Automatic annotation (TrEMBL):
The name this protein goes by in its record: Aminotransferase
Highest taxon listed in the record's lineage: Bacteria
Keywords, alphabetical: Aminotransferase, Transferase
Domain Aminotransferase class I/classII large per the UniProt entry, residue ranges: 35-377
Gene3D superfamilies: Type I PLP-dependent aspartate aminotransferase-like (Major domain) (3.40.640.10)
Example of a GO MF term: transaminase activity
Family: Belongs to the class-I pyridoxal-phosphate-dependent aminotransferase family.
Lineage: Bacteria, Bacillati, Actinomycetota, Actinomycetes, Micrococcales
Amino acid sequence: MELARRARSAESEIAPVTDFLGQMEVLARMPGAVDLTFGNPHEMPLPGLVAALAAQVQPRSETWFAYKTSEEPARTAVAAGLSAELGTAFEPQDVAMTQGAFGAISLALHLLTDPADEVIVPVPGWFCYSPMLRSAALTPVPVPLDADSFDLDLDAIAAAVTPRTRIIVVNSPANPTGRVYSHDQLTALARLADDASGRIGRRIWILSDEPYRRIRFAGVPFTSPATVYPWTLIDYSYGKILLAPGQRLGYLALSPLMPAETRAELRAALTPLQLSIGWGFPDAVMQYAVPTLEEVGIDLVELEAKRDLVHGALSEAGFTLTRPDGTFYLWGEAPDGDGDAFAARLANDQVYVMPGRLFERPGHFRISLTATMDSLQRALPSLITSA
């Protein structure tokens, strides 16, 4: 059977990541390995997460494990959390519970796009944007962030808009750079998107990819595009703040600033679309646990200490690094501008980092700070001597 063109295109886009993942599944299991690649847990799961799930496993009724769409207690808890965090009143009907952020992004694409539409994505940025778009018969339009600060480059975004543009993806806090975009930047982006929508004669949407929203360091404020641009959808994953990416739980939320008629149309389409794209709802137990999980999260004080340890030691050793405002990543320039060569030298010491090539920036590298403090301390001498 001949593979569909969009499947082959998606396969080609994601191949560097799947190849790297395959290598790491073998290497990271070797005794003494220090894995600083993906944002996976390196310690036992959070007790609060385990307790929340355990409390929901025992059935309360015959339908406890029956088919579930977006459960009302989960939607109510999410809407309350969003309202408190973002200072804008979300309603439960604004929320669709999904299988993590992947499910939320897929739902957003099905809600808003038609084949051959264009979606502007940040570079460097999450390496799954383009493959997801290709598999949906959409065209990714990579737009570089500011080369020095990794802030949004509004001129580059404006230049990338065409009559086919449908969505601008904003990821804040950003993977891999850790940048959190300011209120002023996002307000300017909202004006840009509104002006461009008028110019091309169709609405340009913002998809605000916020899985790291609750992972910010002390004193760093947060603005969601949903509070400054009415035509915004938020996707979120609990897998980051819980450090449990294998437990698929997330949501898609509509900006409450959206015009009432548009909002009603999208609300009505959520459940039918989730049914039609393959039952895109989280498992029953995960949904039951949402009200409790809204209050559970990793130790941000410890995470900040890890950031300061590694950033401080590598900066002192002469590395050029972005000091992250959030996420659990550290992004830096590779010695001699060759991220693959740097990663290969570290691999000789069984220390593994992610080369920037996977983010379309071969001169950089990314470190995941989800490793234990002991692992990070053991990795530092190799990181410094491999420069």
